[in-house]
Design a protein that fits this description.
Largest sheet: none
Oligomer: single chain
Order of helices and strands: HHHHHHHHHH
Helix content: over 70%
Strand content: under 5%
Distance between the termini: 34 Å
């Protein structure tokens, strides 16, 4: 396994950013998966699913190494528990990405109205966009550290965190609207498919929620 200890020499946030990059790489594969899924390209969907599972495992390896090698709080600019909480929340994004493709492939075929597919893909894109915005904030964390977690830099980050929270709220509203429409079509979609899509939508919503939580953890660091 690659050793990240050298990264800790200058900043404890270097490995955190490495992990976030791995997490986002995993989440980004969800759109290609559903493009293939809705196109009926089973081979492509299967390959992307395998890729997501492999990437999620890779993110876990990075997470575990960070946990094992993170210095004691005495040597850190922030509380060690805050960094571990941030790491855990980031990792949820990769975990949820894996869960989405697992649930989506439990039943074959998994029916979904063709006219509603653009709505689903838009919701997915919006949820993934919140994850990308959370990643942007994590990448700014060294600048925050240099500014002692205060000043103009902190104000800008807090503004971005608030934007993620609003975006997450909009994703939730859109998911509710799509779920209602799916339930109206239960007779054509089928009860089993409906329940599985309900779970997929829940997981997509939790992706945006995890992104919001990443921002919340960084906000706590700013306020401590």
């Amino acid at each position: 396994m690659r050793n990240f200890l050298p990264i800790f020499g200058r900043s404890p946030f270097g490995p955190i950013k490495v992990h976030m990059d791995r997490v986002l790489e995993t989440a980004r594969e969800l759109r290609p998966f559903f493009d293939a899924f809705f196109a009926g390209d089973e081979d492509r969907a299967r390959d992307v699913r395998k890729s997501i599972l492999k990437m999620e495992h890779g993110a876990d390896l990075v997470k575990n190494e960070i946990r094992e090698n993170l210095p004691n709080s005495y040597f850190l600019p922030v509380d060690r528990r805050d960094l571990l909480a941030l790491l855990h929340t980031q990792d949820k994004i990769a975990d949820l990405s894996e869960d989405v493709v697992v649930v989506a492939t439990l039943k074959h075929p998994l029916e979904f109205p063709e006219d509603l597919r653009p709505m689903f893909l838009e919701i997915l894109d919006r949820s993934l966009a919140t994850c990308e915005r959370a990643g942007d904030i994590v990448r700014e964390i060294d600048d925050l550290r240099e500014a002692s977690f205060g000043g103009t830099e902190a104000e800008e980050v807090l503004s971005h965190i608030a934007e993620i929270g609003q975006a997450e709220h909009e994703v939730d509203k859109a998911i509710y609207g799509l779920a209602k429409e799916l339930y109206r079509r239960e007779s054509t979609v089928g009860t089993t498919s409906l329940l599985l899509w309900q779970k997929v939508l829940e997981l997509v919503g939790r992706l945006a929620n995890a992104a919001e939580s990443v921002g919340d953890h960084i906000r706590l660091m700013l306020y401590r």
